[in-house]
Amino acid sequence: QVTSLLVFNGELVVGGYFNSGIARWNGVSWSGFGSGLFDVTALGTYNGDLIAAAGHVKRWNGTSWDTISSGLSITGYLLALQEFGGELFVSGEFISVGGGGNDHLVRWDGTTWRSAGSPGGVRSLAVHNGELIAGGGFSPGCEQQEFTNIARWDGAVWRSMGEGTPSSIRALGIHGADLYAATFNSPNLIR
Hints:
This protein has strands at residues 2-8, 11-16, 22-25, 30-31, 42-46, 49-53, 57-60, 65-67, 72-84, 87-97, 105-108, 113-115, 121-128, 131-137, 150-153, 158-160, 169-175, 178-183, 189-190. With 191 residues, the protein is mainly beta. It has a four-stranded antiparallel beta sheet, with no helix packed on it. Strands 5-6-7-8 form a four-stranded antiparallel beta sheet, with no helix packed on it. β15 and β16 form a beta hairpin. It is globular and about 45 Å long. The two termini are 27 Å apart. The mean pLDDT is 86.
């Protein structure tokens, strides 16, 4: 099962639940990344490096995978990776900095992990119009916030995006100047 796709250094990178967990297609043939990974749930980049969520946050150093999630408590799946404002944002079902509480969303500046003040259960991340967009399943009152399934981070605080979406968001995507949200219930695609 394929869980994520990413174009990295001109190659299509595929992550998921299969033998090596991660592979790349150069347009002619498939190849791996070192000894591979187990159960890749998300792919992203940070400072020009390939990043994979595979139980922990891993960075490809050109020959092998380095774990960069030291200091995080991770129980459950990591769901999304997104670089924004010089930091790597990581969402997960149960993820926290230092083992306290459930942050749902954390950020890394290349040295230190810290909470990103999540609006709730974040499943997908994207950058649109200079802001980090978080989509998932959260509603007013959830985590003491006022957001319905989608929120935007301007680098300082989370803000609502209109009235939100009628159902939980599965994925976010950008096409041209438009932001799209794939939801679990009808309508399945919202712009």
